[in-house]
Specification:
Layout lengths: L9 H21 L4 H9 L5 H19 L3 H29 L5 H4 L2 H11 L24 H19 L3 H26 L19 H12 L1 H4 L7 H22 L7 H18 L4 H7 L5 H17 L7 H27 L6
Helix pairs in contact: 1-2, 1-3, 1-13, 1-14, 3-7, 3-9, 3-12, 4-7, 4-14, 4-15, 8-9, 9-12, 11-12, 14-15
């Protein structure tokens, strides 16, 4: 299978997605005093970061697995992409907990702390003990719920392709079946999650692969059929984006006028499909733009990892509500993301095979 050129805008698109997530979390938790600031930040939800990141992951991980000489290399590359930065961010978070009095020697000697530490070092980052429920938003780094989901994606691709073989038709069939399953599960889960009496385990499905797999598979399906469909994507990003924006405006009008459910209807699913395909097309439209703006650097993971601990510090310091808090978050997270990329993430990535 031919793989797409590395001359693309995926680094820039990942950066924009990570910034959107951080900005929206600022809007959600810091409650700025200026209505204009709040309105601008709220408007960023039209470029929803999580589906964008998962779609890019599906597209690139599919090719990454195809190019890897063996499973060991594939999983080593995936490990190096996430865990060095994740573990250093964990150390940073622990230091914040100590500095602000939410962790001391007696707390560090308890089973809940060590259970939390093990989950943060492995693949269960969604777990938070009562020990830290009074720190900021109630969880030291709430964004990390996506790490187990992303790891699940990494495992899903080799498992699925082992059963489908090399035939494109067989792969497409399995990808479509799994996409339909994930969409159905997502619809069920959203209805169950927001029901009047969900159980204590209602959050558990939300940190598994199942409700989000279709985001990932929108990218994987495009990757599997790339040679056949690339003429509809390359150089046509603005067309796809225009269609997505116009549809989103129409969707919002229908949502407001008819009060249609946001998470449980075909309108939203089509919106996510258009967004995911717009992202893939934008990656291969004006391909030199991404390289010029990012300089080959990928700060997206650092922004994603550090923005919630910094937001928590702003909350602990009582600075929420001030418009200046947005500036504080921007500067601090930007510096941390830069340092993380230059000194933690980039060195091991530079030596790995298959850099997708």
């Amino acid at each position: 299978m031919a793989t797409p050129t590395r001359d693309n805008n995926f680094d820039l698109l990942r950066l924009i997605a990570a910034i959107q997530i951080a900005v929206y979390h600022c809007y959600e938790h810091l409650h700025f005093s200026s209505p204009v600031v709040n309105s601008v930040l709220y408007a960023t939800r039209f470029f929803i970061g999580i589906p964008v990141l998962f779609t890019i992951s599906g597209f690139l991980i599919f090719f990454s697995y195809e190019r890897a000489p063996n499973l060991k290399t594939y999983f080593r590359n995936r490990f190096l992409r996430i865990y060095p930065g994740l573990w250093v961010c964990l150390l940073f978070t622990i230091l914040l907990l100590i500095m602000f009095g939410h962790l001391n020697w007696s707390g560090a000697s308890t089973l809940p702390f060590w259970s939390w530490l093990i989950t943060q070092l492995t693949f269960l980052q969604f777990y938070t003990p009562e020990l830290f429920r009074h720190f900021g938003t109630g969880t030291p780094n709430g964004s990390l719920w996506t790490i187990p989901v992303e790891i699940g994606f990494y495992i899903f691709i080799p498992l699925m392709l082992r059963f489908t073989g090399k035939k494109m038709g067989s792969r497409n069939l399995h990808l479509i079946v799994w996409t339909i399953f994930s969409i159905a599960f997502n619809i069920w889960y959203q209805q169950y999650k927001f029901s009047d009496s969900p159980s204590n385990l209602s959050k558990l499905p939300g940190v598994t692969v199942a409700p989000y797999l279709f985001y990932f598979l929108f990218g994987a399906l495009a990757a599997n059929n790339w040679e056949r469909i690339k003429m509809w994507y390359e150089g046509k990003g603005l067309v796809w984006l225009t269609v997505y924006v116009l549809y989103s405006i129409l969707f919002c009008v229908l949502l407001k006028k008819y009060e249609i459910g946001y998470w449980t209807n075909a309108y939203h699913l089509l919106s996510i499909l258009l967004l995911s395909q717009s992202v893939i097309s934008l990656a291969y439209t004006y391909k030199s733009v991404g390289q010029k703006l990012t300089g080959g650097n990928d700060y997206s993971l650092g922004i994603y990892l550090y923005h919630m601990p910094v937001i928590n510090v702003i909350l602990v310091l009582g600075l929420a509500g001030s418009n200046l808090s947005l500036l504080y978050v921007t500067l601090i997270v930007g510096i941390l993301a830069f340092l993380s990329w230059k000194y933690i993430e980039q060195p091991p990535l530079a030596s790995r095979q298959n850099r997708m």
